Amino acid sequence: MKQSASGFTLIELMIAMLIGLVVSAGAIQMFQHAMTQTNRANEIQRTQQTLLATIEHVIPRIRTASVVSPDPDDANGNGLQITRTASSTNPGNNCTGAPNTAGAVVVERYFISGQDLNCESNGQTAVVAFDIVSFNLNRLYEDTNGDGRGDTTHTKPLPNSGVMVGAEITIEQPLVDGGSRIIPMHIALRNNALANRNKRGDFSP
Amino acid sequence: MMNHNDQKGFALITVLIMQLMIGILAVSAIDTAILGMRQSSASQQAHTAYNMAEQTLLAGVRCIQSEHSNGKDRNQIKNDCANDNLALEDVAPRSLLLTAQGELATGARRDLSLLATQPFSSTLFDADAAYTCFGGNCTFSPPTSAASPGADGTDRWLPGQEAGDADILAQGCGANGSHSPPENPNGKDDKAGIIIPDGTIVESNGNGNGNGNGNGGGSSGGKSQFEGNPAIVDTPESYADNYGEDGELAHEATERAEIELSDQIEILASTAEGSEGDISLNESETGIWLVGDGQTLSLSGKTAGGTIILDGGTLELSGNECFAGLVVARNGGSITTSGTPAIVGAVLQVAGFMQRDSLQGNSSVYYSSAVLGWAQEIANNLDSGDKWSVSNFDQTVVAKSHEG
To answer: Is the complex ipTM more than 0.95?
Structure first.
């Protein structure tokens, strides 16, 4: 009776510990993997939100712009400068949040400082978005025949004159595990396109 | 040893706990999914609202253009083109602000606006004569020399100008000698030299051929300082013969012209650059200028062009300076000249202008349809001809719903 109550043999214990070790090693591996995945998902979601916010910020401005050009203070032709006219009835704010004067010409200059997208307007500077590596005006689409549609594509160096009806903006964001990705975005300069199409009376849907 | 009964219910509790944990996980996953769905649904609705507003806005512009080409005026356009989703509002003497609203039942909404600007009437920029003055106190003193016409209704170009020139001032009409502008081969042949139905042409001493108020009819007959077809319209009767149906109409036409001209000048003046003190135009400067009472506008170079509104002010021309475009005047605005300057385009005015001896030397007014068209383009600041222009497209985010 006494013998039957004796404990496990050493071999049994060793096997049990080995199995336990293997199982817990796998579990730790899986846990670490899950942690990485979660972090990665969070980072991706954050960059996506940044991207969306930046796009939502910049699209209405470019749509209403009369002139878009690279940042004039940038020697390499990077950055973006938007020139637009504030509405006479609902002037809104400039990119730094300061109120516009009704009907005034608003100039907004976007540039990267560190990894932040900054905007300067009317002598003030504000951070628009974090974690953006580059923010450039890459292409301009000019309407040379005045029909409100872009027919000539300009790449860098971009011209200073001409009626532009479309622009390609590139936003470069860092990836979680190093490197970066460039997202191109095409926006119509509605103000110029509508004015030109109106000249030809061409508003057929 | 454990009793079998002691273990009873343990499996059930374990399963319940596990179900609870799985349930919590599932609910949080569903929450995330619903949030994502709401986000994309709100974004899609915002785009739909934007597109609706843009459609409404474009329909509004189409409506304005078609009403305008059907001869409707501003107020008719405002009444006819507005609807529940499109408001038309006066914001400037010749501009309407179109505000289109795109709204979905869920509450997503976008407002878009656009400024539509009325073109200047081409009738203002297409005078019937080189010099036109309506009103009882109009006086015109032609130049003392017969070497060049005081007012010439022959349709001309600027000196040095050729068909299709984009910048018609490039040749420098002042430097070229403004007294031999070439005839425009495709020009109009029904422009008078001077229309002054209620005023008087002040004959200069030594001219010798200035009696009578009759229609000159040609460059050689009567007054040598006027050319055109007809050269001179200086009585209500001759005005009625040429432009009205009967004698009575002449005065009506004059009155109507006064009102219309005054209205047009008002509209034009709202666009002009006004400034304090005297104005001096640079060489080849273009624009619209408003010269108020007591102010003087002169040229620092030899050539300038566009539209000058003399609202009581004075235009001073000297030497062989050349102004290309339209000069309109009212409230006693006048032109003072010395030497041999020229105005190529047309001069229009309502009463009280061109005082005696104000036009000295060999100064002249030449009619030019090409220059007037160019001045109209400068005034309208666009090349869209007789259309309303659109600008200041604006996108306003009014409200955004996350209802579903």
So the answer is: no
